[in-house]
């Protein structure tokens, strides 16, 4: 399982704000090279022992291999070194070329060439990023398995996916890896080592597809291409000659941030003044950042230098809009700036504005000395100017009140470029002044409009009713967090409007309505196949698992229901309106008002405690599974015209072994009853009254992925793979041609592969 130390590491950061060539600030120790070839090497990394923080970890030492032109930076112990693509200080990431596992066969299924790729990162600063990487498998009728160990769990971690080739000719180049020709799956956090295996039925090796591949690669790097299946080692020779891009989080692993007021320990890495410590995103340890208003390398003495905000604004193409001193003169100070008013003007009491010395009343008195016509004209002009100023001040006040200045600072310091700040004028134009014809949703929290921006981009604009004044700063923090979420099954936040009393959010537009409408609308009663229901459930679960455990901070959805799961043109699930509970505190009275729109989905444990947890989302998702299984509403009317709770009725009928009586008749078939029974069992686990005994959303997503593959095999394969779930020992035995793999460990999920 374990390879030589550090066969693979990574994560990327574009050092544009920190490289010596772009900002003039040093990034390496004095007298040490700051580049190897075209790659910047910032401290604590360094080329050679004297230039790296080897006392913190010897893997900070970089070897510059000059046998190549240009030279290539390498990290690790020979021969298990990895080529560095780039390093990030601010994001604490490194990006490298990673290994590929492959098996190649001749036409008579003789092994022609093979390689097993993996790495061992124990005692290194590196952990593979869970959000930036995916385990990917390429080939026909092959299963790829990734297994390894983590910092936090001594038990074996196992995951994988299955790739098939039925109908491969209809798959276009550039298609995502959803199973046909290639597949992909996520990895667990804190993975310290791994090995990848390929499980192949040699009797089904296709003449055009002699080679099969498995690899851990950067998200979005690989998309399907038919010629990757053709020829011996064709994929490696054409697209991955030096390996595949792989991203790793790095940190100072042998320590932690000092507690408030505590003295920094010996060997503390954040040595620059105007720097601060943050806990590592992935695994143990900590990272260093420059304080607000400063930039540079926080790991170097005096590495964080003051930013000249006045100079930056004057060089900005949007100078008039972003310049901090309206009608004043900007003067830079350490960590910030102040505004000075010119001759004939005085401060308006705020940091960013100036006003004339003469008041409006004084101006009117002077005006009375001229002719009455001039006086009238002056009064009218002053009144108009006053109204415009009042209107502008009101918008500026709302903008500041809603955290606009903080958002600008965050956008600059964190390099957030995915959020567009709209003016109220742009929003009114996009929605035709909030026309009723543009309304696409209306609920207890506000209205949702279909809008069209200037570049003909269709968006959804959410106009909330009210937001707690005490939570406006948290609102901006949520915008920053949501802007960094990039998941194909989560509705993307595109922008916001802050110069109104209640801020508005702008999302991508999803055209096919909600899952609730798809299942329950009287206008839509067509048959919904089981594989589509499993696809929607799996994608929704993966999205919820992502916001629970794969982001920089845990986000609770707080209102999981079929109305908040949208469907695009290809019926892919898109989870929406998550994080709503984080936008305001929920006391007892507010909690009762909050649940009015989610009756039938509410976790009974949360109803008693008035406290939402990640297991509250699991319970609500269990109710969504029941809707997919039964096609009944959470609160429905039975044959006796009585109102029933679906979660209560389903539990009773399941316990009384009357499952067939409540399932949707359209999906009841003998061939898939095993899948339906296991899906019902999974829903029952989600609906457990005790939150701690429910599975996590990640476990739910993994089980749904496996059920989808079982259902696919039942439909497409004459001799399908048979799998089932139990609770107890994990025992996996896979026989494939001349290869046999066995492992055992304690886990909740059991995968039995009886036959390929």
Automatic annotation (TrEMBL):
Entry-linked SUPFAM superfamilies: Protein kinase-like (PK-like)
Intracellular or extracellular location(s): Membrane
Ranges that cross the membrane: 364-384
Membrane-related topology note: Single-pass type I membrane protein
A cellular-component GO term for this protein: plasma membrane
PROSITE patterns cross-referenced by the UniProt entry: EGF_CA (PS01187), PROTEIN_KINASE_DOM (PS50011), PROTEIN_KINASE_ST (PS00108)
Keywords for this protein: ATP-binding, Disulfide bond, Glycoprotein, Kinase, Membrane, Nucleotide-binding, Serine/threonine-protein kinase, Signal, Transferase, Transmembrane, Transmembrane helix
InterPro entries: EGF, EGF-like_Ca-bd_dom, EGF_Ca-bd_CS, Kinase-like_dom_sf, Prot_kinase_dom, Ser/Thr_kinase_AS, WAK-like, WAK_GUB
Signal sequence interval, chain numbering: 1-20
GO biological process, any: cell surface receptor signaling pathway
Principal location listed in the UniProt entry: membrane
Domain of life, source organism: Eukaryota
Domain Protein kinase: 434-707
GO molecular-function terms, A-Z: ATP binding; calcium ion binding; polysaccharide binding; protein serine/threonine kinase activity
PANTHER family in UniProt: OS03G0642600 PROTEIN (PTHR27005:SF165), WALL-ASSOCIATED RECEPTOR KINASE-LIKE 21 (PTHR27005)
Protein name in the entry: Protein kinase domain-containing protein
Organism: Lolium multiflorum (Italian ryegrass)
